[in-house]
């Protein structure tokens, strides 16, 4: 786990002339699950968008697999990295067709999916647990079902690097664990994952490293246990972290002064 697949060097970015992220440097290592945490509005989604080349940089540089981000064609980029964004449009199409969107970078001029594409789509729907709703219109699904359909699309894209912005939103607690376990499985099958999670206990349990952000800056990148021990999460979120040794579970309570 030493090779960097994604490197941010002193980047700044934002919207229009409004700078949101300032001087961020970060290496994402091949094969890791790196989770971004931080208070609302600190810039986590903005960082993922910059990495997925959806926002121009105001300063600095991002390298993907040793190449500058700008040097990738759109198709090449889509074969290397997939993004599950936080907010998405909801087209009135069947789940299966949405998941097939993940195969677009691989289709030829005819845009007709081949055998491999169909297999990848079927496999992704199975993994994400949406195979039985493949003919359902996206607009007829619950928030959680739709979230899984989008995750299937990202899986079908079959990239080495996957960006997930709050992959567990809209999901009940049981489904959250299902999705986190699926993410862990994808990681063990060689995917590098960069994701945003709000649940600190989940972040501590499912990540190899955690990047803590505040007000557009990166405060620390540490392994879960080390980060938990440091007390930084308590300071940044105004909470108190606990470790229940018997259950091997982290939990957080309000900070009592
Ligand atoms: N399209 C946009 N145009 C202008 N400002 C934006 C846009 N998107 C986000 N921002 C601003 O950028 C800042 C960072 O937003 P971002 O969504 O990256 O934060 P976040 O850490 O992901 O937040 P959350 O935890 O609430 O999802 C916020 O102040 C937000 O208002």
TrEMBL record:
It comes from the Bacteria. The keyword Iron applies. The lineage of its organism: Bacteria, Bacillati, Bacillota, Clostridia, Lachnospirales. InterPro entries: AAA+_ATPase, ABC_transporter-like_ATP-bd, P-loop_NTPase, Siderophore_ABC-ATPase. GO terms for biological process: iron ion transport. Its main location: membrane. It holds the Pfam family ABC_tran. This is Iron complex transport system ATP-binding protein.
């Amino acid at each position: 786990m030493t090779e960097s697949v994604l490197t941010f060097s002193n980047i700044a970015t934002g919207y229009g002339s409004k700078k949101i992220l300032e001087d961020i440097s970060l290496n994402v290592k091949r094969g890791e699950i790196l989770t971004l945490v931080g208070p609302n509005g600190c810039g986590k989604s903005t960082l993922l968008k910059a990495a997925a080349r959806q926002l121009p940089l105001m300063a600095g540089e991002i390298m993907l697999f040793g190449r500058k981000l700008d040097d990738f064609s759109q198709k090449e980029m889509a074969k290397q990295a997939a993004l599950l964004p936080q907010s998405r449009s909801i087209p009135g199409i069947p789940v299966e067709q949405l998941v097939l969107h993940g195969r677009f970078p691989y289709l030829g001029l005819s845009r007709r999916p081949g055998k491999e594409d169909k297999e990848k789509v079927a496999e992704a729907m199975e993994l994400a647990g949406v195979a039985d709703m493949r003919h359902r219109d996206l607009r007829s699904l619950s928030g959680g079902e739709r979230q899984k359909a989008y995750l299937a699309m990202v899986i079908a894209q079959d990239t080495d690097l996957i960006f997930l912005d709050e992959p567990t939103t809209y999901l009940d607690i049981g489904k959250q664990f299902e999705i986190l376990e699926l993410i862990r499985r994808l990681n063990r099958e060689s995917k590098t994952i960069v994701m945003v999670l709000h649940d600190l206990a989940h972040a501590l349990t499912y990540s190899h490293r955690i990047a803590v952000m505040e007000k557009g800056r990166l405060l620390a990148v540490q392994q879960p246990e080390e980060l938990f021990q440091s007390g930084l999460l308590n300071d940044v979120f105004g909470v108190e972290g606990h470790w229940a040794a018997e259950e091997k579970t982290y939990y957080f309570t309000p900070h009592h002064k």
